Amino acid sequence: MEAAIVFSIIFLSVAAMIQEAYYLHDTITGRMILAETMEKIRYDGSGEAAAVFEGEGERDGNPRLWLGTYKISVEQKAQSVTGRAGAGDWEGSIEMKTFYPELFLRRYRALSELGRGADEAGD
């Protein structure tokens, strides 16, 4: 009799751990797919491409192991890109600044010129 109780507790514990593993898998990969989709949209920037990338993200996210149907929506603003993803009772969102490569290049050039000036002065 005691063995039946012990084994039922063990089996229920293992089932709960497997369920939690599926939930973690779905939420983590859901956020990763959302982040990848947003990066693609940030770098491409055009409105038509955003819809294509959203569709690719939803296709990559379905089917979820535990949570069900995966949905993505991305909103572009002048200075940021906001993405929301959801499946079942889980929902996640990420906000990223818009990518401006020319700003990075100007800053890099200014820093490299500052570095050269310091080397020439003997500092």
Explain what this protein looks like in three dimensions.
- 64% of the residues lie in helices and 19% in strands.
- It has helices spanning 2-44, 47-61, 101-121, and strands spanning 70-76, 80-87, 90-97.
- It is elongated and about 80 Å long.
- The chain has a three-stranded antiparallel β-sheet with strand order 1-2-3, covered by helices on one side.
- It starts with a helix and ends with a helix.
- The protein has one domain.
- The mean pLDDT is 85.
Characterize this entry briefly.
With 123 residues, this protein is α+β, with helices and mostly antiparallel strands. It is built from three helices and three strands.
Determine the strand fraction and express it as a percent band. Answer: 15-25%
Strand order of the largest sheet: 1-2-3
The total tally of domains equals 1
Order of SSEs, N→C?
HHEEEH
Mean pLDDT over the residues: 85
Radius of gyration, taken over Cα atoms and rounded to an integer in Å: 23 Å
Number of beta-strand segments: 3
Regions with little confidence, pLDDT below 50 for 5+ residues: none
Which geometry do the CA atoms define? elongated
* H/I helix tally: 3
Distance between the termini: 81 Å
Secondary structure class reads alpha+beta
Helix content: 55-70%
Q: Largest beta sheet, briefly?
A: 3 strands, antiparallel
Output the keywords.
123 residues; alpha+beta; 3-stranded antiparallel beta sheet; 3 helices; 3 strands; 19% strand; elongated
Q: What are the SSEs and their pairings?
A:
Elements: H1 2-44, H2 47-61, E1 70-76, E2 80-87, E3 90-97, H3 101-121
Antiparallel strand pairs: 1-2, 2-3
Helix pairs in contact: 1-2
